[in-house]
Write a structure and sequence with these properties.
The complex is a heterodimer of chains A (618) and B (338). Chain A is an all-alpha fold and 618 residues long. Chain A contains 19 helices and four strands. Chain A has a two-stranded antiparallel sheet. In chain A, strands 3-4 form a two-stranded antiparallel ribbon. Chain B is 38% helix and 17% strand. Chain B contains nine helices and twelve strands. In chain B, strand 11 and strand 12 form a beta hairpin. The chains are: A mainly alpha (618), B alpha+beta (338). At the A-B interface, helix 3, helix 7, helix 8, helix 9 and helix 10 of A face helix 2, helix 3, helix 4 and strand 9 of B. Protoporphyrin IX containing FE (HEM) binds next to helix 2, helix 3, helix 13 and helix 15 of chain A.
Amino acid sequence: MSTTTKSKSVLWDWLTTVDHKKIGVMYLIAGTLFFVKAGVMALFMRIQLMYPEMNFLSGQTFNEFITMHGTIMLFLAATPLLFAFMNFIVPLQIGARDVAFPFVNALGFWIFFFGGFLLSLSWFFGGGPDAGWTAYVPLSSRDYAGLGLDFYVLGLQVSGIGTLVSAINFLVTIVNMRAPGMTMMRLPLFVWTTFISSTLILFAFTPLAAGLALLMLDRLFEAQYFITDMGGNVVLWQHIFWIFGHPEVYILVLPAFGIISEVIPAFSRKRLFGYTAMVFATMLIAFLGFMVWAHHMFTVGMGPIANSIFAIATMTIAVPTGIKVFNWLFTMWGGKITFNTAMLFASSFVPTFVLGGVTGVMLAMAPVDHLYHDTYFVVAHFHYIIVGGIVLALFAGVFYWYPKMFGHKLNEGLGKLFFWVFFIGFHLTFFVQHLLGLMGMPRRVYTFLGDQGLDTFNFISTIGTFFMSAAIIILVINVIYSAFKGERVGADPWDARTLEWATAHPLPEYNFAQTPQVRSLDPLFYEKIHGDGKMKPAEPLQDIHMPNGSILPFIMSVGLFISGFGFIMFNMENPILPPIVVAVGGLAITFICMIVRSVKEDHGYHIPVEEIKAKEVN
Amino acid sequence: MKKWKNVWRILPIFLLLLLLTGCGETNLTALDPKGPQSQWIFDNMLLSLYVMAFVTIVVFAIYFIILAKFRRAPGDDEIPKQVEGNHKLEILWTVIPILLLAILAVPTITGTFLLADTEPEGDHTVEVKVTGHQFWWQFDYEDEGFTAGQDLYIPVGEKVLFELHASDVVHSFWVPALGGKVDTVPGITNHMWLEADEPGVYKGKCAELCGPAHALMDFKVIAVERDEYDAWVASMQEEPQEPTEVVAQQGREVFEENGCIGCHAIGGTGTAAGPALTNFGEREVVAGYLDFTDENIEAWIRDPQSLKQGNNMPAYPQLSDEEMTSLVEYLKSLTVLE
Ligand code: HEM
Ligand SMILES: [Cu+2]
């Protein structure tokens, strides 16, 4: 059985794969494409704002760009890029052969991908959504927003299912698939943050799905949840949205914290300072993240009592976050630090993130937020968290795990150049935006008038964006250059501490020939000090059972995509087919696949011991 | 090059330097507060900035010490001491932030109530009903019985109360130099207050994305001494005067024949689909942002879409030059002040 897959084409191999590593790589590629797309939109927006009263983008196009930029960056770039690492690294870090449900894992990816694709199609049907990524009603209702918003609603609904499915998979994997001896309190921080962030997804994406469903009913079938004239409530949407939207930021930033907590110890050659405190601080942040959603709504008229409560609750998040920051600093303190590219990103994350955090506390002061809210001060704040936090961490992760994923390092010289150009560009872009906000520049404005004192800083901000764009080009060059000339390395190029570096090289599809016995936190480091530098096996060498690939996840996702498109067709002028047929037809495809999957027996295949032995030699 | 050097010098000191010199255009920027509310907000913004600057400095100091001291020398393969943690330190960096937050919590709560305090002061408190429209502002002086559009007149040194409404989508009413913003939300009535210390024209903006021309949804707050304000109110209350010049009289006919009057009230209360034009002749800008010139008025009437995308005024390309000239004359004659 084991050799049957070899005969099929490469494309087929990727379309049917259920291997967490390949799925990780697919997330990486898809996330990067969306990241570049949203980045180009950001560049265009900043060019429009380079000089007062520019005519590069119209107001309408600009609004479509902010909406798509924000939506894509959060749902289709940052989330999948983090998922890429979660998929690839988490099973390795806990000593597992795969995630708990490989089939479901593939399904999660394809649903996410086709959801994103559906959203992107809006451009070909009369323009993108234009009500901001928050899609506040009534601006997003049928009276004010066109077809683009239907793509927003259905695209996010579909891709949200994918995210939810993957999150459940991570939860089960981390609870069930840990190697012997890998207790919860020995989990690497990246696994912990994946676990907690998946829990957040579970609780946050459900209200989002509900909210999107209500908005869809309003838009397509003339329900009246959010139409004031009919007794609907527009603030209701804001609550639903932010009950999802605030945790969403933590869904993204906690795994970023996880990456930082892996990279800093590895290159400081020290164990993470205050491991237990880090774990509980993460939990506390996650919990508080759910209690503070209304701090996005201080100016909406909730009244002084609600405002005070949400303000104080928000401030308390600074305490566990502060604990984390100092623990990172004291991990480095007394260490022997190697400042390669990954570590440059990881260590510069700490002060940068603090700058975003302190403005967060400033924003939490509800009465003063009446000044900041909806201005460039907020734009600066959340980009310090999102770019200065999440993106820096992602780049640290890319440079750190690249050898494990692709077998060679990225070039260090180009890497450092990339770091500096990006880092300087980032601060140029966003630092001055704090000032713009205080000087009276609202956010989401497509232009500003001259002689308002806003010219200089807007110009500087745009220049910074050019730097960041150049940096990304350097990264692309690096990836291509390294593919040919990059240093080929072994299984543990960084002399690192955690299990993913204990596998054979190149990484076999079954990860570990024998499940390792974990004896400590930082298991590989422990064996390097107390053992012979290799993990002790927890089981005898035997045939390994692996799941078969399947095309069903792909087809099921196509079904959902078709169905989503069908729903959108309810709002189209002259649909070629009756919308109901397409909507139900798509769902039927998905359900038929589900039935096939349940009925058809698929026992997977076994890799015989001899084959494993042959692989483990090199 | 010179310019760039200066920028670099300014950046690290962030606000401190900029704040002291005042930054941005006066009467727009919140860094140069012109009323008790904006002053309170500014002071407490500074307070939080100081506290946060302290935190930042501590973190940066530790970080730079690390950068300087703990690099691994090439070839140094020694493994540093593996420290598990340190309870004393961890308690320290839990307790200190809590104390710092306590400092900020007090003004947070008092300030929230200060901003929400919309009790009238005395029986002549000015109350204005504000309505946000795509993309203009309506100001109803309900007690006085008239409506104004785009320009909001208020008396200096008095707390003015606002009742906020939205007619279509969510907008946000913001005069940075005078105070914080509050949203205008369809179906909901919000309240806020503002006060100006000195006479002047303060720039106002819409701060919530409300459609394609959101960026251009500006307005002006004109703060005048009480007696001047009373005079303005009195003449706004009067019936609009017949234009004296012939051209303007013709313009008035154009105005009525072309249905402008259907959307733009002149005199009276309430308003239909467009801003009241009772005192249009005294505006500094057309449509919230264009310089007040004959050319701009004409351009606006001929093609409002190209100047404010997505707004609700129809275009009038069919007006002859002659009609347009008289119409513009008429509009400019709409004044209430001497
Ligand atoms: C890399 C350089 C980036 C640049 C130059 C940039 C620039 C911008 C600009 C100009 C806006 C519009 C600001 C406004 O509201 O007026 C914006 C909004 C936004 N950005 Fe970015 N951005 C960048 C990266 C990111 C990343 C990585 C993320 C998230 C992962 C992100 C998330 C957002 C969000 C959520 C919004 C708000 C969109 C909305 O208002 O609906 N940005 N960005
Ligand atoms: Cu508005």
